[in-house]
Write a structure and sequence with these properties.
9-stranded antiparallel beta sheet; mainly beta; 13% helix
Length: 241
């Protein structure tokens, strides 16, 4: 009995020590600690270079006339009818959120997210994305310059894609995750879709990273590339070792 007892203790200690080698800390970046007045936004016009939420850094470059590249944050929603400039309306955030703060990415240049723990890297599990109201309306209805996605006969193979690239601790590419914010290339019209509700993207395939690079592309880039440069993100889930 004593030998069996000692053996059981040994196995328990062995398993516990192995488990400790993989101990990690999970973190949800929801931007709710950022400070904003009611129905307002921050886009770098006062102090650029970026901002932090939790242990994550979101890069920002402010140009002029309310234009920026990288990330801005806001508590405006689709029903407020506000716009950050002539090319961008914000989306609605879920009602349950406290301050309704989320990010808007502008990919005029590559939008970059950096993680403060660059020694071991960070696993990015997932994040939520949605279209801006401005682009959703163009995709559905078009405007004076841009024809609606699919065309009037719904037979044009239009698409709008977000690409997320992982950069590892040795500056290597760990992978790329593509997510279509709109896809009108299907044979059946009823299969065409536009992302108008928050959707999670699984980013686990990117493995351990020190940085994420966001870029946008569309079937209309050759003529209207500057228009299709906006998207929204929220609730990033990461795991640190």
């Amino acid at each position: 009995m004593n030998y069996r007892y000692l053996f059981s203790i040994f196995i328990f200690m062995f398993l516990f020590s192995c488990e400790n080698e993989d101990v990690f800390i999970s973190e949800i970046i929801d931007f709710e600690e950022l400070e904003l007045d009611t129905l307002s936004y921050w886009n770098g016009s006062i102090s650029s270079d970026g901002f932090s939420s939790g242990s994550v850094i979101f890069c920002n470059t402010y140009f002029s006339d309310n234009n920026w590249s990288g990330f801005a944050y806001s508590n405006l929603n689709a029903f407020d009818g506000y716009e950050i400039n002539e090319k961008m309306y914000f989306a609605e955030k879920e009602v349950s959120d406290k301050q309704n703060i989320y990010l808007v990415g502008n990919c005029t240049n590559t939008a970059i997210v950096e993680f403060s723990d660059t020694i071991n890297g960070v696993d990015v599990i997932a994040l939520q994305v949605i279209n801006t109201l401005y682009l959703a309306n163009i995709i559905k209805y078009g405007n004076e310059e841009i024809n609606r996605f699919g065309g009037n006969l719904r037979d044009n193979p239009d698409w709008f894609k977000l690409s997320i690239k992982g950069i590892g601790i040795h500056n290597e590419c760990t992978g790329i995750v593509d997510f279509f914010l709109a896809d009108f290339r299907f044979e059946k019209i009823e299969d065409d879709y536009l992302i108008e509700k928050w959707r999670y993207i699984d980013l686990r395939k990117l493995s351990k990273v020190k940085q994420l690079e966001f870029s946008l592309s569309s079937s209309k880039d050759s003529d209207f590339g500057d228009t299709f440069k906006y998207f929204c993100i929220d609730n990033m889930r990461i795991r640190k070792y």
